[in-house]
Design goal:
The protein folds into two domains: about 120 residues, no CATH class; about 35 residues, no CATH class. Helix content is about 40%, strand content about 10%. The strands form two sheets. Strands 3-2-5 form a three-stranded antiparallel β-sheet. The longest helix has 12 residues. It is elongated.
Length: about 150
């Protein structure tokens, strides 16, 4: 099934479209809607002000924000590390992709599509001899991942 999912990610319509005129919180919301993942946006080592547009971010750090007007489109087939580099190259922003609950960062080896299908979590569970997410939740006495993360 993984092969077909990855193939589908390559041909999927444009998943995520952003430009420097968008507010940080809008970019984060759209990223979550498209991929089901959390996008952490930084200005230097601090979280970027969510109410500012990318082009309005202030100069609290030495990082130069590039307020170019170029629109970029990100597809589900893009690896998370390449996505993070693309944002850095185009806008001068540091971003990191985290899971849907913003609990852990997604390893750069996964594509955005794989991460949205929870493949990093499934692989982590397999390495620890769980049969899958349901098996893990049963052993943790939880019905959902949200319930598990709320407890921890």
């Amino acid at each position: 099934m993984g092969f077909f999912n990855n193939l589908f990610d390559n041909f999927k319509a444009e998943d995520f479209h952003m430009n420097s005129r968008m507010k940080v919180k809008s970019v984060q919301r759209l990223f979550k809607e498209n991929f089901g993942l959390t996008l952490r946006v930084y200005k230097g080592k601090q979280f970027a002000d969510p109410d500012m547009t990318i082009s309005q971010l202030d100069k609290r750090t030495g990082d130069k924000i590039q307020a170019n007007k170029k629109d970029i489109t990100i597809k589900a087939s893009m690896n998370t590390g390449d996505f993070e580099k693309e944002i850095k190259n185009e806008y001068g922003l540091t971003v990191q992709v985290a899971d849907e609950f913003n609990k852990y960062l997604i390893n750069d080896k996964y594509t955005l599509g794989q991460a949205s299908r929870r493949e990093p979590l499934i692989d982590w569970l397999k390495e620890r001899d769980y049969k899958g997410i349901d098996d893990f939740l049963k052993q943790e006495n939880c019905k959902t991942l949200k319930e598990y993360y709320d407890k921890h």
